[in-house]
Design brief:
Number of strands: 0
Number of helices: 37
Oligomer: single chain
Structural class: mainly alpha
Largest sheet: none
Length: 720
């Protein structure tokens, strides 16, 4: 019977968590989920695991990204599965915490685990898919602590090596857990054991692992993620002020979790203001008081508070990391550290209410009900990006990052005017915000305000000259203005920073083609295809891309080799289909596209290109059917709308074709081919004046668009 005495309390913890986090099951993906998961091409590549463990993506948390890779295999990009995993891990962590505190003989162990389970400050770690790294590192950290405890209690050296291995897995999940070796010593001190030479030697391998992963993370944050620049140049005095303020901030949110926000205000830190030092003095005073009262209070409160402070140390501002650009604090930073204060509070409460079980149970039930209700309410904020950013701005209206990100989200929903307004507000709050200048330029460019777009791209480049995307988009805007030579310079600048990006090579090739430099243009097109054989635009023939020059067969051989190595890969069949399509081998391309779709029916690009190939083969009805299927999977696919329009034109359904071209233009206002398609439809309907306007619009977008120029020349020859 004793073996099962923990089953019901453990199940109750899990039940409470799944109830409180029910809104998260209806949530989608939010900020950073694209970088880590949905738009992370590495996770879908054949060599994903090798790259995850040898290079990192986008940071070196290889176990977390391996978990993402496995989850993508299991349920694709359905967010429900990812939320289920996070919530399940949080449930396991709460149960493990109960076991650990009970073994440490902490009073009120189950209640401490229940507070950890239901505290709304942890919603950010559980309801945000990206924070799988928190849930995973928390799991392995608690297991490592439990294993080390059993080793120190004399249960065998095997528990030592188990704990060390689990700690390494925790570091591979999230390296901020690197302070765990200090927690091992605190745990020993709390139990009244001497920290002697043997104890220090036992902890030394843990310190070595922590140091190695911590150094690697700092290197990545500064070299790859971009934690550099004026916003990160803080003096030692400023960093001390940040740390002092942050410690009290986190403690306050644990005690009174009101107005929790995804992004908190970034404090203005000035060592010359005497009042700001009160935070630091208060930390020192509290530490001194705890130490002086340690005999009266016992070692528990001292150990708990030190655990809280020590495990928070990596995120207190002494080391710069990218998120500091937006705020010095975040709820998810105290997922594990908060355990220390929770254990202290519940331990004191259990001691004070000892012998008054009914009162303790009643008060405990009220506290858990309040916390669970707050968690349930907080979880709604993570429903989608619009909800999250609006919730953030309701609590922190000065968050320029939230205004900018809300703008980007609204643009994706087609709410262009609101998107522009949000970006302008972000720039009002922070005029030197390069991302907001970039997004505003992009939105203005989509609206056709090329002149204003160019100004904001140039300002974005002044602030961040290394951004290849800004150089590329500025080049596109300059092309639209007819400033092709300047555009070529921008594309070349983009390639200096990012020489392996295929679409920049292609854009440079198109610009060179317009200048008559066909040989160099052909080289750029070949390089684009060499870097990514699947990149070539299926709307254009090889002659369009290469100025009539044939490609060599080396890329085709490379694509065939990829298929030989992965014969059951939908992407490999799709890539071969593209390569064959580009060479005019339509029948063979159709076979490969169909095989790609058999292996992965949701491959929208394969379905779109199959439609294009079928239309090239004169099978317009089948082509239209494929494009309709593509649009059912992704209604916002502008190329599928355009290609459906072409198929409908081939079937003589001019009015329906016009609707598809118009829809393509709504999704992609700079789509010259769709403007041309509309012109041809209007021409067929005997509306020459309107057709002429669309031919002219196509040329404004792409001055080198030969078919539109030929239509205009024809109309001029025909006369009035």
């Amino acid at each position: 019977m004793n073996r099962y005495r923990g089953v019901l309390p453990g199940l109750l913890l899990a039940l409470m968590i799944f109830t409180a986090y029910a809104p998260a099951f209806r949530a989608g993906f939010i900020w950073d989920d694209d970088t880590h998961l949905t738009a992370n091409a590495i996770l879908a590549s054949p060599g994903a695991l090798r790259q995850i463990w040898t290079q990192g993506t986008p940071v070196y948390y290889p176990l977390t990204f391996t978990a993402f890779w496995l989850e993508r295999k299991l349920w694709g990009l359905d967010p429900v599965g990812y939320h289920l995993v996070n919530i399940a891990l949080h449930s396991i962590n709460a149960i493990l915490l109960w076991f650990l505190l009970r073994r440490l003989r902490v009073p009120g162990a189950w209640f401490a685990a229940a507070i950890f389970a239901l505290h709304p400050v942890h919603v950010e770690s559980v309801a945000w898919v990206t924070e799988l790294k928190n849930c995973l590192s928390g799991l392995f950290s608690l297991l490592a602590l439990y294993g080390y405890l059993r080793f120190e209690e004399g249960e065998g050296r095997k528990w030592y090596w188990t704990a060390l291995s689990l700690f390494l897995l925790a570091l591979f999940s999230k390296s901020a857990i690197c302070t765990l070796p200090a927690a091992l010593l605190l745990m020993r001190w709390y139990r009244g054991r001497e920290i002697d030479r043997r104890a220090l030697l036992d902890v030394l391998p843990f310190v070595a692992l922590a140091g190695a992963l911590a150094v690697a993370t700092v290197h990545v944050e500064h070299g790859r993620v971009g934690a550099g620049g004026p916003e990160f140049h803080l003096s030692l005095a400023q960093r001390v002020l940040v740390a002092g303020h942050a410690l009290w901030f986190y403690a306050a949110k644990l005690v009174w979790p009101a107005r929790l926000a995804f992004v908190y205000e970034r404090w203005q830190v000035d060592p010359r203001v005497p009042s700001q030092w009160l935070w630091v003095l208060a930390v020192l005073a509290a530490a001194a008081a705890l130490w002086r009262l340690r005999d009266r209070l016992g070692r528990g409160p001292v150990a708990g508070v030190l655990f809280f402070a020590v495990t928070l140390a990596p995120v207190l501002g002494f080391i710069s990391f990218y998120y500091n650009r937006y705020s010095f604090v975040a709820d998810h930073f105290q997922y594990v550290p908060g355990i220390g204060l929770i254990a202290v509070a519940t331990g004191i409460a259990a001691h004070r209410l000892s012998g008054r079980r009914r009162v303790a149970a009643s008060l405990g039930a009220v506290v858990l009900l309040l916390l669970g209700s707050a968690t349930w309410q907080r979880a709604h904020a993570f429903k989608d990006p619009v909800t999250l950013w609006n919730d953030t701005l309701a609590k922190n209206p000065s968050s320029w990052m939230a205004h900018n990100n809300l703008g980007a989200t609204l643009d994706g929903l087609g709410r262009k005017g609101e998107a522009i307004s949000e970006c302008r507000e972000a720039l009002r709050l922070k005029p030197d915000y390069d991302d907001a200048h970039y997004n505003l330029a992009l939105f203005l460019q989509q609206r056709g305000d090329i002149r204003s777009a160019v100004e904001h791209y140039e300002e974005a480049l002044r602030l961040s000259p290394w951004n290849f995307k800004t150089h590329n988009n500025l080049g596109m805007a300059l092309v639209a203005q007819g400033r092709v030579r300047e555009a070529v310079a921008e594309f070349r600048q983009a390639l200096q920073t990012a020489p392996m990006v295929p679409y920049v090579h292609r854009n440079l090739g198109l610009a060179l083609q317009r200048l008559g430099a066909t040989d160099e243009a052909a080289e750029q097109f070949r390089e684009a295809v060499r870097l990514d054989p699947s990149y070539a635009d299926a709307r254009k023939s090889p002659a369009d891309d290469l100025g009539g020059q044939a490609r060599d067969d080396e890329p085709l051989a490379r694509v065939r080799e990829g298929l030989r190595l992965a014969p059951q890969s939908s992407e490999a069949h799709y890539n071969l289909g593209l390569a064959l399509h580009q060479r005019g081998r339509i029948a063979e391309a159709i076979v490969q596209y169909r095989e790609a779709l058999r292996l992965r029916p949701d491959n929208v690009d394969a379905r779109n290109n199959l439609g294009v190939a079928l239309l090239s083969a004169g099978r317009a009805a089948e082509a239209a059917d494929q494009q309709r299927q593509a649009l059912r999977a992704n209604p916002k696919h502008p190329y599928a709308h355009y290609n459906l329009g072409l198929a409908l034109q081939g079937l003589g359904k001019t009015a329906e074709a016009m609707e598809e071209f118009q829809q393509a233009l709504k999704l992609k206002p700079d789509y010259a081919e769709a403007q041309f398609g509309l012109g041809d439809c209007l021409d067929a309907l005997k509306r020459p004046a309107e057709a002429l306007a669309h031919y002219q619009a196509a040329l404004r977008i792409n001055p080198g668009f030969v078919p539109a120029r030929e239509r205009l020349a024809r109309d001029q020859r025909a006369g009035p």
